[in-house]
Amino acid sequence: MLRAAAKGVFAAADMLHRAPNGPRVLIYHQVGAGLGRQMEVSYDDFVWQLDWLADNREVTSLEDAIARWDDDDADQMVVITFDDGYQDTYRVAFPALAERRLPFTIYLSTSHIETQEGRPGAEPLSWDEVTQMVESGLVTLGSHTHTHPDLRTASADVVERELSWSDELITSKLGVAPRHFAYPWGYWSEVADRYVRVRYDSAALGSRNTAVNPSDPHLLHRVPVQLSDRRVWFKRRLAGGLLLEERARRRLRGYTGP
């Protein structure tokens, strides 16, 4: 109840800011995991969200969205992305996406896929499961580093090792070199930025810092979809992004980057 009331305040604050430019790039982590974490959504809400998007927006690939970022109707475009690489992306989310033929992007952290180490309810994908999704023709693959470190405190050597290890595993296991990247935790790093811009066509962050989303493909701000968003707040995220909520979250986490 308290969280819902807070979202109402945050949504009202959106009215004071200009709506963001460009396509809406959504962040999902888990679907139907039942862990009660804000980084997941229920299966019923996810299916409703997909149907609403299919009826009211243009769900497109990441590459298409980047190419059309400055189009007049770009704010009606939506990109669906998943971070980390949890098994429920394949088991729960993928069948719903495939049934509707909706494209999506997966940013893979490769270490836990290699080791198959995970927590109950947050088990990692297998390479075979990723392969099956890629073969559907709906998936754009991206790197999310190897071990998912906070790159703000990483040296240049660590950054290069994390990116190389991830890229090499994805390429060798799937036969596709990743052309896109997502910063772990959504936290940008000046050191990492130099390497990321050379290796990838785009780089995704977390929520935005201002009401205007930059069109720099290596600073793609995204819209996190949360368990408590349900349906009404999902629409508000697409419209204004609940900007004040995201600013509060950034402040609590001590993040001051773009």
SSE layout and pairings?
Elements (H helix, E strand, L loop, with lengths): L1 H13 L9 E5 L1 E2 L8 E2 L1 H14 L1 E2 L2 H6 L9 E8 L2 H14 L3 E5 L1 H6 L11 H9 L3 E5 L12 H19 L5 E3 L7 H10 L2 E3 L18 E2 L7 H8 L3 H11 L5
Helix pairs in contact: 2-4, 7-8
> Quick one: how many beta strands?
10
Given the structure, what is the number of helices? Answer: 10
Q: Kindly report the name of the CATH homologous superfamily.
A: Glycoside hydrolase/deacetylase
Strand proportion, as a percent range, falls in: 5-15%
- Identify low-pLDDT runs: none
Descriptive notes:
The chain is α/β, with parallel strands linked by helices and 258 residues long. The protein has one domain: Glycoside hydrolase/deacetylase (TIM Barrel, Alpha-Beta Barrel), CATH 3.20.20.370. Helix content is 43%, strand content 14%. The chain has 10 helices and 10 strands. Strands 1, 4, 5, 6, 7, 8, 9 and 10 form an 8-stranded parallel sheet that branches. Strands 2-3 form a two-stranded parallel sheet. Strand 8, helix 8 and strand 9 form a beta-alpha-beta unit. The longest helix is centred in the middle third of the chain and has 19 residues. The two termini are 31 Å apart.
